[in-house]
Amino acid sequence: LWVRDDVIIASAHCPVALAHVTASRKLLGICVAEFVRMSWLLSSRGSVTGNGGNLATRVASWMITSHNMSNHAKGVMPAVPSRHRRQYVEHANDVLCTHSPGPPISMIVTIKNGKFVSIIMKRGFRADNNGCVDVSNSESLGGSYNGLFPMGLIGCLKPAPHEYKYTRFFKRDVEKPNIVDVSVYSEHLDDTALYSENVDAPLASLTHQRHYMAPGVQKIPVRYGKVRGSLFLPPGPGPFPGVVDMFGTAGGLLEYRSAQLASRGFASLALAFFAYEDLPKALEEFDLDYFREAVDFLLRHEKIISDGIGVIGTSKGGDLALCMATFIPEIRACVAINGSNACIGANFRAGHELIPSLPYFDISKVRMHDDGIMETISSVPDSRLHPESVIPIERSNSAFLFLVGVDDRDLNSEFLAQEAFRRLKHNNYPNSYEVSSYPGTGHLLEPPYSAHCVASFQHSFMCPILWGGTAKHHCRGQEQAWLKMRHFLWKNLIEDRCTTDQKLQSML
Questions:
Q1: Can you give the pTM of this predicted structure?
Q2: Which residue range or ranges hold the BAAT/Acyl-CoA thioester hydrolase C-terminal domain (predicted)?
Q3: Where residue 88 falls among pLDDT bands split at 50, 70, 90?
Q4: Given 443, 452, 473, 474, which residue is catalytic?
Q5: Which of 10, 94, 266, 407 has the fewest CB atoms lying closer than 10 Å?
Q6: How would residue 20 be classed by pLDDT, with cut points 50, 70 and 90?
Q7: DSSP letter assigned to residue 302
Q8: Beta strand pairing status for 309-314 and 242-246?
């Protein structure tokens, strides 16, 4: 089992390699090079283990290390040296497994977040007549998903059976990679068999690391006046396009999107606005001065382009982003992700002007599912009935991009985005504005290949909240929305410095 560039390969019984077991090292190396048709690259650091008594598994390890096989005794599976780092938003979708034809196999993927909650993805496959499983064109027979889903390896990760079911997987410490363990078993395993003491050892396994920060990215804690957050700077002298990055009612400081944006050429300020350090512990009335101070911090930085920045907000961060774009003229590009066109949860004050929050959720319209999950989409008041709470975005200087999960079960995000669109159109807004919708995608529209979370525990309600989406569509939507957002930001923040296509090519 190994990683080759963006390809994870599991090898249990390899007809090509077995045919050359007795051949010279040189011949084996040629055979293996022809078999994979490119060099093997492991993402950051990794190691390979397997059943030492299984000749085919040992051959798999020889295939990995044929270039330096003389340094190791036959049958010993050494650590594989680091060759490059794989970013979390990059593909890891081509999984090849060579196995004897016919019998089913299981591929098990586990990962742990900062709270050491095991996340598991399992899927069953059957090798073809050549003994090969290639998940880019092989359908899963069951497990975490059915059918063809190349990025199901990551997109279908979910809490293991012994963990709390409604856990949202997000990264707190972005300076450490996610450790992904991949194992291949010789049969299809259900949860009971997998956690049984009598389960056989895997045929092969591999530890794979996926990083949030590219080499050279700097993370700088920010305590600037009242502003609290973390600034992520790309490597190099700059200047770089700057963005303010915010999330929602999860609170605290979430840095993983900013780390990945900095790895793609943006100077990104992950901005906390409550429940962090000396900030208010709960949602209270927001003051424009706090967010203006964050913008001033970015514009004064020597490595950031000083003639305008962008802002990104998810959920509650979405309406805050709209407020920033409305009242801060230096905002040139605003991305609202599954947010509202009106203030929700707290008032927003801009000098002498106050935008009151929509009346709180109508508890009588909350739907409680049999499994204890709360669905809130119908309980949010209609912003059309409360015009005083609608954000006057037509007064902005910014371009707008509204990213929408059509299957959002927390907010009626598609309707709210269309309301914002209609307001801009009605006022003959001179700058660009667009709604981009993704069918089957839920509320938690994250960077690509983040595990789909259909529901998770929310402290503000003290119960799990339904976010919506289906894994396959959600994963695809995240990938498309990420590219859309990056293109939008580059186009509106630096198009006068170089072509968007040139910059996008450098980020892919």
A1: 0.80
A2: 287-494
A3: low
A4: 443
A5: 94
A6: very low
A7: T
A8: parallel
